[in-house]
């Protein structure tokens, strides 16, 4: 089997309450990621991240150590923050053996110039969220928040998550999806015709005006009996061929 040039995942929302999803992630790292040249984690790997001082939490420590094992195997591991884990910092990066990237990030893999991002910044119709995002991404806000005791931060985050679930239930899918104008602007500014992102939980390949936009799936294996599990990744081989894969590794298109 040819070693992939790169693998991409996002939106696993890892948490101790979802053990099957966590097990699927650990299996992916062992059986797939360790055999790639590079692994890109494109945001919302964790359900939330309260700060790098939460690395001592047993669940966080286990997931971080598993990523570190991939890095120690010689794989280049890269991280782009999501809307749930944007407080990941240098402490996590060191522990996981990962390189933190700002977004959008442009890279060339096997001859393909690709722009990478989480995707939330392009959901410009969700005005309330965009205002919130602008606030919490400010260094001053983050310094003030991270100065709070860890338990207090977790309590605040829990409240924000509950409020977000309520608000999202009242929003249309169109509002919560990326907007064409924002996507077109990223393509133009980054001089790329290929994009990979997550966030929307609407996996697909969009072909518009000569551009290709790959949307990563979210992962959810802790479902009720009879419900389908979700998950998968995108791969690029050494010849620049991009493929989408299900949780079993099979190509889905």
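Q: What amino acid sequence fits the structure above?
A:
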């Amino acid at each position: 089997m040819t070693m992939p040039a790169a693998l991409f995942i996002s939106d696993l929302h890892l948490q101790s309450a979802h053990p099957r999803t966590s097990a699927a992630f650990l299996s992916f790292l062992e059986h797939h990621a360790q055999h790639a040249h590079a692994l890109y984690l494109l945001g919302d790997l964790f359900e939330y991240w309260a700060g790098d001082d939460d690395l001592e939490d047993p669940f966080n420590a286990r997931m971080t150590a598993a990523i570190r094992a991939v890095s120690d195997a010689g794989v280049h591991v890269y991280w782009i923050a999501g809307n749930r884990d944007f407080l990941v910092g240098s402490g996590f990066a060191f522990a996981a053996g990962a390189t933190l990237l700002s977004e959008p990030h442009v890279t060339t893999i096997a001859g393909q110039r690709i722009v990478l991002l989480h995707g939330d910044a392009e959901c410009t119709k969700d005005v309330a969220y965009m205002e919130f995002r602008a606030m919490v991404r400010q260094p001053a806000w983050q310094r003030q928040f991270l100065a709070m005791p860890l338990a207090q931060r977790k309590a605040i985050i829990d409240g924000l998550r509950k409020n977000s679930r309520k608000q999202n239930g009242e929003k249309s899918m169109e509002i919560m999806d990326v907007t064409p104008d924002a996507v077109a602007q990223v393509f133009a500014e980054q001089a790329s015709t290929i994009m990979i992102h997550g966030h929307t939980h609407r996996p697909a390949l969009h072909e518009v005006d000569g551009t290709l936009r790959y949307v990563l799936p979210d992962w959810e294996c802790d479902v009720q009996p009879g419900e389908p599990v979700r998950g998968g990744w995108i791969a690029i081989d050494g010849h620049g061929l991009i493929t989408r894969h299900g949780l079993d590794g099979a190509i889905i298109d």
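Q: And what stands out in the fold?
A: Residues 6-124+172-245 form a domain with the Purple Acid Phosphatase; chain A, domain 2 fold (CATH 3.60.21.10).
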